[in-house]
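FORM 12-B: Structure-to-Sequence Request
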């Protein structure tokens, strides 16, 4: 009987995760990642969610769903009510925490990410760390048209955002640091991480 209960819980978890994946896939269906490779955008939220699954102990369903949806408010026609009705208020709040205000300039958005990083909830910080880690991997492998200088600038900014996060979420930060170290080797540049 206990196996049935555990299996039902696991099945419901999987159903909810795949529901979020389906929703994000539909919302991002016409988008590609930056760069010349033409990679479907949905690959990015999947990578972020997968990193959280690998590096967090017992991640909640809400954090994984929010990771899959983390760019929907920012980069698609999704409205908050859609997320709340389908996935609940806690998922919506997480997605909103990691969403930039696209009415602001790129510079303003980047500065705000640095300023707000330490005020994010623990789950939002985890999504932010995983997002930055996956973005760095992406610019190293798919954004061939980005100059070395642009790649270094992005990684330097990502380090500034991570520096502000007080609770370091050890497994995720290790992954971030390893990715930055790999980037430094590939770009022949010494990034300073003092946290």
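FORM 12-B RESPONSE
SEQUENCE OUT:
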């Amino acid at each position: 009987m206990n196996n049935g209960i555990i299996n039902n819980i696991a099945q419901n978890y999987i159903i909810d995760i795949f529901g979020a994946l389906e929703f994000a896939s539909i919302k991002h269906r016409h988008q590609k990642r930056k760069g010349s490779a033409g990679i479907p955008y949905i690959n990015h939220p999947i990578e972020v969610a997968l990193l959280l699954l690998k590096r967090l102990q017992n991640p909640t369903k809400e954090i994984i769903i929010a990771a899959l949806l983390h760019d929907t408010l920012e980069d698609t026609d999704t409205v908050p009510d859609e997320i709340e009705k389908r996935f609940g208020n806690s998922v919506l709040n997480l997605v909103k925490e990691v969403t930039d205000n696209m009415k602001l300039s790129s510079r303003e958005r980047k500065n705000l990410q640095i300023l707000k990083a330490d005020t994010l909830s623990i789950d939002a910080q985890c999504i932010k760390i995983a997002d930055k880690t996956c973005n760095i991997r992406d610019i190293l492998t798919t954004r061939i048209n980005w100059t070395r200088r642009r790649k270094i600038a992005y990684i330097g900014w990502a380090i500034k955002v991570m520096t502000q996060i007080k609770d370091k979420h050890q497994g995720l930060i290790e992954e971030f640091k390893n990715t930055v170290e790999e980037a430094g080797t590939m770009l022949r540049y010494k990034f300073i991480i003092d946290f």
